[in-house]
């Protein structure tokens, strides 16, 4: 099967599953994709010693591998869209290479609409401008939200939030806005007399505090956001550089993955799958990850509900981090990445 | 202060006799026995006499904040301080509370003023404070301590070994395996990287046999979730880049120098082919955190001084530092006297 043929099948699955009538099962397509990746990616091949018959058996590549090795089917000398991790959680920057963003863009926009409903096309982002930081997948995603009819403004410059321009943009908006922020940037804005959002606005929050110290808990931040910004809707987003799809939720609800992404919680020590409702280390299987690896193993803890939605429980317990020897992640963060 | 060396000797003898009943988690009982024997062997009569003959006045009291990863590291300092007549308040990591309580119970039987606290604040109240753990812990404690407190910190370190081609035999492999097994590779003196200028394939064959035997003698204990996840990441990288051998609860892998990390995962060893010059350069680049360098019999110690390790020793002795030594370049024994 060629890449283009597989891409068409995945796209068709996305379309038909959004219509609640998928043309084939997730598992059938996942197994096809895995086999293709195994045939075309040395990394996937090396980590897939035997054939699999169920999607849960597909090897999930640890995200740490993305920091060290080129994962996927796009050679380093080939034209590619390159997304990089921020590096704030310790370690060098993970690299995700894909040939194009067609599946990414279709999935991101359509799943967001399916979860949020109609949202304003005037986007105000507490993020770096993707024109200047093209390796940010989060900024790339948010740049889709004007949907070709609205506009987006960017108010983070090299990690520094521009409060003046942000408040001015909000103040100057004549209609509802879609404000997109990381938790860290939002917390900073909330602590500095933010401008209230226009009626009908939607607030999107993503990410945790990524290794930085903050004074607000998640619950406090959401409460403060509701009180100070008065959004008509507050949504939460979970994504990562190594994935091509996103999950959407709310401060009090679980995250819902798109039909082309499945989540599995495993025992962190044995790697054995856990039943729904039991917290474990999260693995994601994303059909939109055509050019890299279908299966990703994160360092996040969470549980998968019977309906496939996900509740997060923070990061894996890192006991050795409080001892005298260096953990692998600490060694990466001290510049030992080749 | 009145010295209590005789009581200390009796205390240490009692501990040695009671090793079978020592709390052991997260190590296995056999692993804890290895760790305790290593620690007690260093507290030999000649060593104690050498410390007892040092001139200076003992502090009236001291706080000792122990690391989570090498629970027996507190033993040598307790012996030294108690022998000098110092009252010691021991704050152990939560996981090692059982072991600390065991030390204290036996000590108090012999009238030694060793006390256990779960409160860091209590430990901070003393004029001398010894802190073992991460660099961040030491910085925090130093900030919290009174300006009049003498704080000695033992922070993040890693260790490495060199296995000369002339010494590629099972005896050396067994010594490396012993160093790896102690503390389940969590200590700062555990060999995180073993360099060899010999045939790495042969090295892995020998290590496989030795690590398997070590697992039989001193089974690996409990893994923390993040350790297991980090291990899977490193295992994946090894499977892609190099050669991996593994058994029940142990592994060894040959990877390129560029991908070696100065970090450990339990019972997992990085074997790197390198010339001595290449290894020394790699170590020099990480000199600030290099603790111990283990050398195989044919290696000339003088040739390796340039690597910058604070201690060089024979393989098999990496986890058996002598009582009388500089602790990572610091004459801590003298600094613990007024």
**What is the overall silhouette of chain A?**
globular
Assembly level: heterodimer
Q: Pairing-aware structural class of the strands and helices of chain B?
A: alpha/beta
**Structure summary, number of beta strands of chain B:** 12
Structure overview:
The complex is a heterodimer of chains A (338) and B (338). Chain A is α/β, with parallel strands linked by helices. Chain A has helices spanning 3-18, 26-40, 42-46, 63-68, 102-116, 137-142, 163-171, 183-190, 218-229, 328-336, and strands spanning 61-62, 81-84, 95-98, 122-128, 151-157, 160-161, 178-182, 202-206, 233-238, 247-250, 253-256, 261-266, 280-286, 295-304, 310-315. Chain A has an 8-stranded mixed sheet, with helices on both faces. In chain A, helix 1 packs parallel to helix 5 (102-116) and helix 8 packs across helix 9. The mean pLDDT of chain A is 90. With 338 residues, chain B is α/β, with parallel strands linked by helices. In chain B, 40% of the residues lie in helices and 18% in strands. Chain B has helices spanning 5-17, 29-42, 45-52, 73-84, 97-109, 120-123, 135-144, 170-181, 200-217, 225-241, 276-284, 332-335, and strands spanning 61-65, 87-91, 114-117, 128-132, 150-154, 158-163, 191-196, 243-247, 250-254, 268-273, 290-295, 311-314. In chain B, strands 8-9-10-7-6-11-12 form a 7-stranded mixed sheet, sandwiched between helices. In chain B, strand 2, helix 5 and strand 3 form a beta-alpha-beta unit. In chain B, helix 1 (5-17) runs antiparallel to helix 4 (73-84). The N and C termini of chain B lie close together (11 Å). Classes of the chains: A alpha/beta (338), B alpha/beta (338). The A-B interface holds A 42-43, 46-47, 61-65, 68-69, 268-271, 281, 297, 299, 301, 315-332, 334, 336, 338 and B 67-70, 73, 93, 95, 132-134, 137, 154-158, 186-188, 190, 192, 223-230, 232-234, 236-237, 239-241, 258-259, 261-265, 286, 289.
């Amino acid at each position: 099967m060629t890449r283009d043929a597989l891409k068409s099948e995945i796209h068709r699955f996305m379309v038909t599953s959004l219509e609640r009538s998928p043309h084939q099962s997730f598992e059938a397509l996942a197994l096809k994709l895995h086999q293709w990746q195994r045939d075309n990616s040395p990394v996937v091949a090396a980590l897939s010693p035997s054939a699999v018959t169920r999607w849960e058996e597909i090897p999930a590549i640890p995200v740490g591998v993305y920091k060290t090795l080129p994962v996927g089917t796009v050679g380093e000398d080939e034209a590619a869209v390159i997304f990089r991790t921020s590096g704030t959680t310790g370690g060098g920057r993970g690299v995700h290479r894909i040939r194009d963003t067609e599946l990414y863009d279709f999935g991101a926009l359509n799943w967001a609409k399916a979860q949020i409903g109609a949202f304003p096309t005037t986007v105000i982002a507490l993020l770096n401008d993707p024109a200047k930081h093209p390796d940010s997948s989060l900024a790339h995603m948010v740049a889709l939200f004007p949907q070709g009819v609205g506009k987006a403004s960017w108010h983070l410059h090299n990690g520094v939030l521009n409060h003046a321009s942000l408040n001015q943009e909000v103040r100057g908006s004549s209609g509802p806005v879609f404000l997109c922020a990381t938790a860290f940037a939002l917390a900073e804005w909330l602590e500095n007399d933010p401008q209230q959002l226009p009626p009908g606005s939607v607030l999107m929050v993503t990410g945790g505090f990524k290794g930085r110290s903050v004074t607000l808990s998640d619950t406090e931040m959401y409460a403060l956001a509701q009180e100070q910004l008065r959004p008509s809707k507050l949504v939460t987003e979970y994504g990562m550089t190594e994935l091509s799809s996103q999950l959407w939720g709310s401060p009090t609800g679980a995250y819902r993955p798109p039909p082309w992404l499945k989540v599995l919680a495993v025992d962190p020590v044995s790697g054995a799958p856990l039943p729904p409702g039991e917290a474990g280390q999260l693995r994601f299987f994303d059909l939109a990850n055509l050019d890299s690896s279908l299966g990703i193993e994160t360092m996040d803890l969470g549980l998968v509900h019977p309906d496939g939605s996900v509740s997060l429980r923070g990061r894996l317990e890192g006991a050795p981090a409080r001892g005298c020897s260096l953990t692998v992640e600490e060694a990466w963060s001290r510049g030992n990445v080749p | 202060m009145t010295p209590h060396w005789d009581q200390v000797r009796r205390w240490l003898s009692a501990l040695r006799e009671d090793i079978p009943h020592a709390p052991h988690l997260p190590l296995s009982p056999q692993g804890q026995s290895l760790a305790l024997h290593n620690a007690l062997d260093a507290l030999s009569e000649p060593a104690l006499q050498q410390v007892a003959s040092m001139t200076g006045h003992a502090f009236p009291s001291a706080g000792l904040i122990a690391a989570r990863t090498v629970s027996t590291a507190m033993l040598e300092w307790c012996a030294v301080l108690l022998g000098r007549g110092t009252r010691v308040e021991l704050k152990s990591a939560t996981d090692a509370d059982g072991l600390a309580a065991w030390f204290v119970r036996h000590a108090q039987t012999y009238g030694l003023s060793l006390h256990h606290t779960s409160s860091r604040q209590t430990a901070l109240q003393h004029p001398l404070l010894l802190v073992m753990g991460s660099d961040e812990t030491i910085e925090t404690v130093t900030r919290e301590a009174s300006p009049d407190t003498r704080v000695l910190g033992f922070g993040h370190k890693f260790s490495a070994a060199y296995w000369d081609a002339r010494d590629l035999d099972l005896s050396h492999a067994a010594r490396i395996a012993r160093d790896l097994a102690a503390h389940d590779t969590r200590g700062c003196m555990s060999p995180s990287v073993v360099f060899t200028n010999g045939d790495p394939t042969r090295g892995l064959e020998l290590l496989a046999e030795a690590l398997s035997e070590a697992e039989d003698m001193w089974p690996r204990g409990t893994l923390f979730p993040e350790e297991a996840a980090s291990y899977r990441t490193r295992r994946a990288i090894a499977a892609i880049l190099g050669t991996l051998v593994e058994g029940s609860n142990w592994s060894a892998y040959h990877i390129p120098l560029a991908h070696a990390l100065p970090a450990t995962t339990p019972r997992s060893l990085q074997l790197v082919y390198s010339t001595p010059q290449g290894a020394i350069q790699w170590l020099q680049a990480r000199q600030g955190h290099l603790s111990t360098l283990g050398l195989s019999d044919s290696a000339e110690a003088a040739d390796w001084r340039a690597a910058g390790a604070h201690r060089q020793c024979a393989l098999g002795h990496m986890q058996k530092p002598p009582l009388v030594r500089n602790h990572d370049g610091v004459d801590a024994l003298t600094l613990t006297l007024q």
